[in-house]
Design brief:
Layout lengths: L4 H13 L2 H70 L6 H20 L2 E3 L12 E8 L8 E6 L2 E3 L2 E4 L1 E7 L2
Parallel strand pairs: 2-6
Antiparallel strand pairs: 1-4, 3-6, 4-5
Length: 175
């Protein structure tokens, strides 16, 4: 901790020539200096830890609010996809322009989510995973594996590796 060796050497030389009372004063001043330096270093470390903690909390809070906002938009995307499915199922030519408009809205919405690191959970054909799927029904099926997701009733989404919303799924059973 001693950053001034030349000063200490001079002090040591003076210390050797000084009377006993002055030597003890010099030792006391050195201890006081070392303690003050130690307190300063500890205070710097505490402040650095505080700054890092506040930054992490600020970032976590921002992530929380972003996730909350994105989750509130997901039902709107669900509605657009349902409307798109209904428009696609209809053979009426008048719905072609509406279908095109819905496809553009869906595409923009999915691109926005992708830019925000939101990814849909691919559920159909995968094994049921309670960490990302919410089973809302079962169906006896010989054509599927036991526990295989056979229908995705509502798409789930991940924000990075964090679950925003689980997929609502129907799962195959052997009966």
């Amino acid at each position: 901790m001693n950053d001034t060796p030349h000063v200490d050497q001079a002090a040591e030389a003076a210390h050797a020539d000084a009377p006993a009372g002055e030597a003890s004063d010099l030792d006391a001043l050195r201890r006081e200096r070392d303690e003050a330096l130690d307190r300063l270093l500890r205070l710097q470390a505490e402040f650095d830890n505080y700054r890092k903690r506040v930054e992490r909390e600020r970032r976590d809070l921002g992530d929380h609010f972003a996730a909350e906002l994105l989750t509130e938009f997901l039902p709107v995307l669900d509605d657009v996809e349902r409307a798109l499915g209904a428009a696609t199922a209809s053979a009426e030519p008048a719905l072609a322009s509406h279908r095109l408009g819905l496809e553009l809205i869906q595409k923009q919405f999915l691109e926005l989510l992708k830019r925000r690191q939101v990814a849909p959970i691919e559920a159909r054909g995968t094994d049921f995973d309670p960490n990302v799927h919410q089973a809302v029904g079962q169906e006896v099926s010989a054509a599927h594996r036991e526990g295989e997701v056979i229908e995705d009733l509502r798409r789930g989404y991940l924000l990075g590796d964090r679950l925003l919303r689980p997929s609502m799924v129907k799962v195959a059973t052997r009966g």
